[in-house]
Amino acid sequence: MKKYLMLSLFSLFALNLVAVAQQQQPEPLQLSENKTTSLVFPFAIKSVDRGSADVLVQVPRETQNVLQLKAARRNFPVTNLTVITSGGHLYSFPVVYAPHPARTVLHLPDAPPDLLPVQLTGMPLSEASLQVISRHLEGDQRRHYGIRDKNSGLKATLEGIYTYQDLLFCRIVLTNKSALPYSPGLVQGHIRDRRHLKRIAYQQQEIRPVHVHGPDAESLPEGASHVLMVTMPKTSLSSRKLLVLSLSEQQGDRHLELQVRGRHIRQAVPLQLDRLF
Question: What is the domain range of residue 179?
Answer without folding.
Answer: 131-275
